[in-house]
C-alpha cells in the first residue's frame, strides 16, 4: 500500500489555498491543502505497526511550532507548479529530517521546500498568466502546527488519513 506523511494547516489557510486550487490544481479532489513531509512510499501491512511506533516517538519529541506564509512561488522551470511558500523554520526542517532517518525509508527525490500547492499541470501560457496574477497578491497567513498525519492512497488515487500524531503526546 502507498503511504505518505503530511501536515494540514488550519481552515483559514486551507480556504485560501482552495480558492486557487479548485481552478488550478488537478489534484484538488484527491487531497486537501497540505505540506508534504514525506513523499509517497510503499509499505507492506506487516511493516506498518513499526512505522506507527516510530512516528509516535517522533511526534512525542516534537514541540508545536509556528508557520508563516507571505507569498506565492513556483517550481519553474522544473514544473509549472505554483504554491504558497511556507517560510522555512528550524522546527519544520528538523521534523522533515527525522522522518527520513533511522528505520524510516529515506525516499527523498527533491530538496525539502515547505509549500502548499495551489496550481499544477498547467500549460505554459496558463502558468504564466496565473503565476503573474498570484505574485501580485499579499498573504499574511500564520498557523501553529501541533500534529502530522500518516496518509494512505485509495484505489481512486485520493488520499485519506490513517492516523494523526499529536506533538508532545506521551501516549505511546
From TrEMBL:
Keywords: Hydrolase. Pfam families: 2_5_RNA_ligase2. The active site is at 34 (proton donor), 115 (proton acceptor). The keyword Membrane does not apply. A motif (HXTX 1) lies at residues 34-37. GO terms for molecular function: hydrolase activity, acting on ester bonds. A motif (HXTX 2) lies at residues 115-118. The keyword Phosphoprotein does not apply. Its EC number is 3.1.-.-. Belongs to the 2H phosphoesterase superfamily. YjcG family. PANTHER family: PHOSPHOESTERASE SAOUHSC_00951-RELATED, PHOSPHOESTERASE YJCG-RELATED. This is Putative phosphoesterase CQU01_08830. It comes from Cerasibacillus quisquiliarum.
Amino acid at each position: 500500500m502507498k503511504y505518505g506523511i503530511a501536515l494540514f494547516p488550519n481552515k483559514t489557510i486551507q480556504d485560501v489555498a482552495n480558492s486557487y486550487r479548485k481552478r488550478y490544481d488537478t489534484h484538488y479532489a484527491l487531497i486537501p491543502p497540505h505540506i508534504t513531509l514525506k513523499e509517497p512510499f510503499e509499505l507492506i501491512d506487516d511493516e506498518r505497526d513499526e512505522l506507527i511506533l516510530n512516528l509516535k516517538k517522533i511526534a512525542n519529541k516534537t514541540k508545536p511550532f509556528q508557520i508563516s506564509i507571505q507569498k506565492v512561488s513556483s517550481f519553474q522551470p522544473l514544473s509549472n507548479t505554483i504554491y504558497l511558500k511556507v517560510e522555512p523554520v528550524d522546527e519544520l526542517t528538523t521534523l522533515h529530517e527525522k522522518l527520513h532517518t533511522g528505520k524510516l525509508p529515506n525516499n527523498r527525490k527533491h530538496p525539502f521546500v515547505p509549500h502548499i500547492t495551489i496550481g499544477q499541470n498547467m500549460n505554459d501560457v496558463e502558468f504564466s498568466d496565473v503565476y503573474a496574477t498570484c505574485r501580485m497578491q499579499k498573504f499574511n497567513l500564520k498557523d501553529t502546527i501541533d500534529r502530522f498525519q500518516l496518509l494512505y492512497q485509495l484505489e481512486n488515487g485520493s488520499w485519506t488519513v490513517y492516523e494523526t500524531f499529536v506533538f508532545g503526546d506521551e501516549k505511546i
